[in-house]
Design a protein that fits this description.
With 365 residues, the chain is an alpha+beta fold. The chain is built from twelve helices and twelve strands. Helix 3 packs across helix 5 and helix 10 packs antiparallel against helix 11.
């Protein structure tokens, strides 16, 4: 069997994050605006002859290797739990057919989990994509996203919404609506000149640290279910801001983005305590002083990546200012493609490679 590979893109979130987290979308309906970027989560899947039933896993991100031979090995202990949850949902060792083959999985990503780019969900989507190819399933992007959601949120119990799974599965610039378990992905047809200008004026900065979002999201959920006025109003305004930002982009009004991003960041900090911290606040202040028109953390909060929108003439100044404050500017491009899978026919390719080597050696003589 050929080696199978998959990759799913990470994302930057512009507005609406938090309104995709239950129970808000069930009661009021949520909406987010986001776009995938050219940073990816990768999965390689291959079979091993002569063995059956289990899975070898290697994660470059966590520098971990593990062997899961029996279903009882798939217990959650804080190490590779996402992979274990995926294996529980996607295969059943001991049955006949492909599920009884011995598998090897290799995983790595372009950004560490917990930094606000949706890395864990992209990795889950990439695993679902690899298994889709392996099992010869015909899942749609909606079904892939829901499977990834089930693995992360239902099976593993990680708190969060649905935007990351849908972003990774579909890719591109999307306005995504959430109505309970019904999700609608609206791909946006933004003019190429607008996309190019937007990408030119955005700056992505690693602000340090990272976060484990469960606690932040639990506090956000409590703020909403307890009907804490500040939390409820901030979520309502955030959803409306996602609609406004989508409309401005479709009209080509790039200059509105800075003000709207800043407005969204101020709203987000009202969801619950701990969304920001003194280090992030200081970096954001320095960025604004240097010419950034607005920005926000790209994930649940607490740390990770800071997305900034800059005056075109001040972009370099902003970059120097945030790096002087301890940040690290990360180059990126907007990515319009979602989950991709492909097969690598290793045996055929290795024969071609050896033939090419032999030809070069002969020519050298």
């Amino acid at each position: 069997m050929p080696i199978l590979r998959s990759k799913a893109p990470l994302r930057i979130s512009f507005a609406g994050g938090g309104t995709d987290v239950s129970p808000y979308p069930e009661e009021k309906g949520g909406a987010v605006l986001n776009c995938t970027i050219d940073k990816f989560a990768y999965v390689t899947l291959e079979t091993e002859a002569g063995r059956s039933g289990g899975t070898d896993v290697e994660s470059l991100d966590f520098n971990l290797k593990a062997n899961f031979e029996r279903p009882t090995d798939l217990f959650y202990n804080g190490e590779l739990d996402l992979v274990k949850a995926a294996l529980k949902i996607l295969r059943t060792p001991g049955t006949s057919g492909p599920n009884d083959e011995w598998l090897r999985l290799f995983l790595h990503s372009d950004a560490p989990p917990g930094t606000g780019l949706g890395t864990s969900s992209a990795m889950t989507v990439a695993m679902v994509g690899a298994f889709q190819h392996y099992l010869k399933e015909t899942w749609t992007p909606y079904e892939i996203a829901e499977l990834a959601y089930r693995i992360e949120r239902t099976e593993l119990g990680v708190k969060g919404g649905r935007q990351d799974q849908y972003s990774a599965a579909f890719g591109g610039f999307n306005f995504i609506e959430f109505h309970g378990e019904r999700t609608i992905v609206n791909p946006l047809k933004i003019r190429p000149d607008v996309l190019n200008e937007l990408a030119y004026r955005l700056l992505l900065v690693f602000a340090g640290g990272g976060h484990y979002s469960n606690e932040l999201i639990e506090r956000q959920q409590r703020g909403y279910t307890d009907r804490r006025r500040e939390s409820v109003d901030a979520l309502d305004a955030t959803k409306q801001l996602a609609v406004e930002m989508k409309n401005e982009l479709l009209r080509g009004n790039i200059n509105e983005m800075g003000e709207l991003l800043d407005e969204g960041w101020q709203l987000k900090k009202r969801f619950t305590e701990g969304i920001s911290n003194p280090s992030v606040d200081r970096m954001y202040e320095k960025a604004r002083e240097a010419g950034a028109l607005g920005g926000k953390l790209t994930g649940a909060g607490g740390g990770g990546y800071l997305l900034l929108f800059c005056d075109f003439a001040k972009r370099a100044d902003v970059g120097r200012a945030v790096e002087a404050a301890g940040g690290r500017v990360t180059n990126f491009s907007l990515e319009m493609t979602g989950l991709q899978t492909w097969a690598v026919r290793a045996e055929r390719d290795s024969h071609r490679l050896q033939a090419a080597r032999n030809a070069r050696a002969t020519k050298a003589l």
